[in-house]
Write a structure and sequence with these properties.
This protein is an alpha/beta fold. The chain contains eight helices and eight strands. It folds into two domains: 133 residues, Rossmann fold (3-Layer(aba) Sandwich), CATH 3.40.50.2300; 97 residues, 3-Layer(aba) Sandwich (Rossmann fold). α6 links the parallel β6 and β7. This is Receptor ligand binding region domain-containing protein.
């Protein structure tokens, strides 16, 4: 996730507090980041710092940060409890589908807002009123694209379990429209050394039912922006 999105989010939250609350002082906000989500953590710290430097504000944010394995439900629950004991107004954090139920349970029970830079596709269940994802769902959009262009087969390249979960959501959406498509899966184990995987994909025979011999459709679903950048470098 880009730094600008995180900065814009926290400036918006700050404006909301300024308009709706006479509170003066330091407002505690909690943040829970995954071990490999350095970009969101950096953006969060930068945005909080920039907001606190504004001379015309009556209050400042006090960021309380945990860096954990977000897939671990126990660690995540413990971190949320720890943050709530400090009286945070809002939580900001990465989400993984393995522990989505934990976030759902805490936000619904205690009515604590939880803002996430993760895709909403990560959590397939209906979101609670207290969860906000900065990235919209894209599985239905991809399913509509497949139906619109009448793909009969496509290659699906992913690098995480979330990517595989997103594929399930795409196929469910297609099934609702009674649309049948074949998928060839390829998981990238290391995006920095994916050249051989990409070559193997390129050598695979195209769809025998395709009108064009060379026609091949590929969907990339990668976990980070840097992963996309690295893969695109190796395609050039």
């Amino acid at each position: 996730m880009g730094l600008n999105k995180v900065i814009f989010l926290w400036l918006t939250i700050g404006t909301h507090f300024w308009l709706t609350s006479p509170f003066q002082g330091r407002i505690p906000i909690g943040a829970i980041f995954d071990l490999d989500d350095e970009a969101s953590k950096t953006g969060f710290l930068f945005a909080v710092s920039r907001f606190n430097e504004r001379p015309d504000e009556n209050f400042q944010f006090s960021g309380i940060i945990d860096v954990i394995d977000v897939k671990d439900s126990f660690e995540l629950a413990k971190s949320i409890c720890s943050h709530m004991s400090t009286g945070v107004f809002i939580l900001f954090g990465t989400q993984k589908f393995q522990s989505c139920d934990i976030v759902q349970a805490f936000t619904h029970t205690f009515q604590v807002p939880y803002v996430s830079p993760s895709l909403s596709d990560v959590c397939g269940k209906k979101l609670s009123d207290f969860r906000l994802h900065l990235k919209p769902r894209h599985s239905k959009a991809l399913a509509d694209t497949i139906r619109h262009f009448r793909w009969k087969m496509f290659h699906y390249v992913y690098d995480s379990e979330e990517g595989l979960y997103s594929l399930q959501e795409i196929l469910k959406s297609l099934q609702l429209h009674k649309y049948t498509v074949r998928v060839r899966l390829r998981q990238i184990q290391n995006v920095n050394q994916a050249h051989e995987d990409l070559r193997a994909l390129d050598k695979q025979s195209p769809d025998p039912e395709s009108d064009s011999i060379a026609e091949k459709y590929i969907v990339l679903n990668l976990s980070t922006e840097s992963a996309y950048e690295e893969i695109l470098k190796q395609l050039c």
